[in-house]
Design a protein that fits this description.
This protein is α/β, with parallel strands linked by helices. The protein folds into 2 domains: 3-163 and 339-359, Rossmann fold (3-Layer(aba) Sandwich); 185-336, Rossmann fold (3-Layer(aba) Sandwich), CATH 3.40.50.2000. Helix content is 39%, strand content 19%. It has helices at 15-24, 74-81, 95-106, 124-131, 141-149, 198-208, 225-235, 247-256, 269-275, 288-292, 306-317, 320-336, 340-359; strands at residues 3-9, 29-34, 52-55, 58-61, 68-71, 85-89, 111-115, 135-138, 157-159, 185-189, 215-219, 239-243, 259-262, 280-283, 298-301. Helix 1 (15-24) links the parallel strand 1 (3-9) and strand 2 (29-34). Helix 1 (15-24) crosses helix 13 and helix 9 (269-275) crosses helix 12. It is globular and about 65 Å long.
Length: 360
């Protein structure tokens, strides 16, 4: 069976998932993806080890809520690859995706939509768009519920909990001292952009410096780096910037930290932090955080709430025993539940269902 996957861009962190899927389908996975806009600063790749890459000609029009992306050579790719199953982003901002769906359905082949959720607004065209999929993949229970409200049959919805790291091969997380030092390390990993609210994290650390005295490590790069660096120098000079790190260098930062904090939206580094046995604090955002952050391994805070974020960090760093137990629980959640292998398995279940359902 040949699997075609359409992405606006091929993000670096998605490469392991697509290669893992290719293992299950004898290498017959073709990924169609193009370049981001110049101002997006997304880490992308064109290199897949087991799946195949086909470059899309992305034509970006407008911005914000009016943004559209036309992938003008999608039909050349479809005809050359002739997939048995097509997986597309469930996003109606890509107009040619609709024609790709029609092309597949004319051949009685299934199409699977993949996305965060259906959003809050509803209208007849939007409902029709989502209901044309043979199956829908989403990251969370909240996403699944949004698709149900759009009229998608519950049996067609599959939850593939978002992951970027494989199931840990070791049985236990990295060994850490039962106690924490006088200057515990708080870690943030992600793109430095406004919506990540790293400024809020710096302000929280500055408010804590006379009590728990943390050190803040920031790993990542992006358009807001200069602004964030200037803020840190002004109010919390105990902040260290490492730039973008990958592989073993990134793993070392996770293993050496005491607490991971994600103060803004998005951020798959949350799952990576948990795989290294870190307790986590995250802002409630797109719904995926509620699956990862639970009472036993971390704290969810309201977006933009400085006091709540500050209190959460103080609470965890003031109780070393609880902090370490939470880290151990984080590790077990990733090892047993939320990992690349389980995510790929959900994709395979959706593919099997869509193929079976289309034939009936």
């Amino acid at each position: 069976m040949k699997i075609g996957i359409v992405q606006r861009v091929l993000a670096e962190y998605r490469v392991p998932l697509f290669d893992l899927l290719a293992e299950s389908y004898d290498g017959n996975v073709s990924v169609f993806a193009g370049d981001p806009r110049k101002d997006e600063m997304i880490d992308t790749s064109r290199k897949l080890e087991k799946a195949h890459f086909y470059h899309a000609n992305n034509k970006h029009l407008f911005h914000g809520k009016f943004y559209l992306c036309f992938q003008t050579n999608i039909f050349q790719w479809l005809r050359s690859q002739n997939p048995d199953v097509l997986i597309v982003e469930a996003n109606n901002r890509y107009p040619l995706t609709r024609w790709a769906i029609h092309w597949m359905h004319r051949q009685n082949k299934p199409v699977i939509g993949w996305g965060l959720g259906a959003g809050f607004s509803q209208n007849r065209l939007k409902r029709r768009f989502f209901r044309q999929f043979d199956a829908v993949l989403t990251y969370s229970g909240a996403g699944a519920e949004s698709y149900r409200k759009m009229g998608v049959s519950p049996e067609k919805i599959f939850i593939a909990k978002n992951a970027v790291t494989e199931r840990p091969k070791r049985d236990l997380p990295p060994e850490r001292s039962p106690e924490i030092s006088d200057h515990p390390v708080i870690l943030f990993v992600g793109r430095l952009q406004e919506r990540k609210r790293v400024d809020l994290l710096i302000e929280a650390c500055a408010a804590l410096k006379d009590s728990v005295s943390p050190i803040l490590w920031i790993v990542g790069d992006g358009p807001a780096r200069q602004q964030i660096t200037e803020l840190a120098a002004k109010i919390f000079p105990q902040t260290l910037f490492f730039g973008a790190l990958y592989g073993q260098e990134l793993t070392e930062k996770f293993d050496q930290a005491d607490l991971f904090v994600l103060p803004g939206t998005g951020g798959l580094a949350l799952q990576q932090a948990m795989a290294s046995g870190l307790p986590v604090i995250a802002a409630e955002a797109d719904g995926t955080q509620t699956d990862l952050v639970r009472e036993e391994n971390g704290i969810l805070v309201k977006p933009g709430d400085l006091k709540m974020l500050t209190d959460a960090i103080r609470t965890l760093l003031s109780d070393p025993s609880r902090l370490r137990k939470m880290g151990d629980r984080s590790f077990q959640i990733v090892r047993n539940e939320i990992n690349l292998e389980n995510m790929a398995e959900s994709f395979e279940q959706a593919i099997s269902f869509a193929v079976r359902n289309r034939k009936e």
